[in-house]
């Protein structure tokens, strides 16, 4: 009798749990899972904005690997990753360590560092667009005070990619600092105290104690930053006018997907681009997960 009552109560709890997650799961199924497989199907069609899509097999993928603009976007995306990921991770670690120290006014500095994390990307993009304006931007105004000629931050093909990278790094560091600061504050004080008793200096404690124990948080920051950089779009879209001399030099795979799908309406071709990007991120993330076993230290 008692066992039947317990089983009935457990079944009721299970049904309630499924009922609670049903709205979320329905959204995930419709807008993520179903949309993903639909996108896979569209990549094998000539879908546009109008008419019934026709199955064309691998035609989009053959076209993709003969498209010079795709290769340029691919190289640009890799350059964004190479520049932004190390910069974000290193700056986030340094800032987190500084913000974890006990100095006067540390709360004010934390607020200043965290501001980009709560600022809309659209606002950040438009702000930096004006800061880097060729005629009226404050950067060129400062350079002019030192007798340096104005720099076309957002239109010079040699510079524009680095300009976008600077904005991305500035906007992304804040959130990663929060993650690493939480990791630092979770490190037991006893390890540092034991190292001090053994005569270890600050640098030795940082590399022998802090970094190994912070490695799970650093690994999370690396994985999320790599994914975010591969998906870079908003700052390029907001800061670089379409058709300008800096468009091709700053174009990423996501912006190229956007151009093909929603500007030229080659949605089947755009779907193929998005799938290539998906598998690229999947492979890179899988490699990171494999390396996790050797590079990440878990304090069990």
From TrEMBL:
Record's keyword terms, sorted: Cell membrane, Membrane, Transmembrane, Transmembrane helix, Transport
Membrane-crossing residue ranges in chain numbering: 16-37, 78-99, 111-131, 159-182, 218-240, 269-291
Topology in membrane: Multi-pass membrane protein
Residues covered by the ABC transmembrane type-1 domain: 74-288
InterPro entries, per the entry: ABC_transporter_permease, MetI-like, MetI-like_sf
Protein's cellular compartments: Cell membrane
CDD domains in alphabetical order: TM_PBP2
GO CC annotations, alphabetized: plasma membrane
Pfam family, one: BPD_transp_1
One GO BP: transmembrane transport
Principal location: membrane
Coiled-coil ranges per UniProt: none
PANTHER family in the record: ABC TRANSPORTER PERMEASE PROTEIN (PTHR30193), INNER MEMBRANE ABC TRANSPORTER PERMEASE PROTEIN YCJO (PTHR30193:SF37)
Family as reported in the entry's similarity comment: Belongs to the binding-protein-dependent transport system permease family.
Protein name: Lactose transport system permease protein LacF
Native source species: Blautia luti
Biological classification of the source: Bacteria, Bacillati, Bacillota, Clostridia, Lachnospirales
């Amino acid at each position: 009798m008692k066992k039947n009552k317990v089983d009935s109560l457990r079944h009721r709890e299970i049904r309630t749990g499924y009922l609670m997650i049903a709205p979320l799961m329905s959204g995930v199924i419709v807008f993520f899972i179903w949309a993903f497989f639909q996108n896979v199907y569209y990549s094998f069609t000539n879908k546009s904005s109008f008419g019934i899509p026709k199955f064309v097999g691998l035609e989009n993928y053959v076209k993709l690997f003969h498209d010079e603009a795709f290769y340029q976007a691919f190289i640009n995306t890799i350059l964004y990753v190479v520049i932004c990921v190390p910069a974000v991770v290193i700056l986030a670690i340094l800032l987190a360590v500084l913000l974890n120290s006990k100095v006067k006014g540390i709360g004010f500095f934390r607020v200043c560092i965290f501001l980009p994390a709560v600022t809309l990307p659209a606002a950040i993009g438009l702000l930096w667009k004006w800061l880097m304006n060729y005629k009226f931007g404050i950067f060129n105004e400062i350079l002019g005070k030192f007798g340096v000629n104005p720099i076309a931050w957002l239109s010079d093909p040699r510079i524009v990619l680095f300009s976008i990278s600077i904005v991305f790094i500035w906007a992304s560091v804040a959130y990663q600092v929060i993650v690493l600061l939480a990791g630092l504050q979770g490190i037991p004080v006893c390890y540092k105290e034991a190292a001090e008793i053994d005569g270890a200096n600050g640098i030795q404690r940082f590399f022998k104690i802090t970094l190994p124990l912070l490695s799970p948080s650093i690994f999370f920051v690396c994985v999320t930053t790599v994914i975010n950089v591969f998906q870079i779009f908003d700052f390029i879209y907001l800061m670089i006018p379409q058709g300008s001399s800096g468009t091709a030099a700053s174009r990423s795979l996501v912006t190229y997907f956007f151009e093909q799908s929603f500007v030229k309406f080659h949605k089947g071709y755009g779907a193929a681009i998005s799938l290539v990007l998906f598998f690229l991120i999947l492979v890179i993330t899988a490699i990171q997960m494999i390396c996790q076993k050797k590079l990440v230290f878990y304090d069990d």
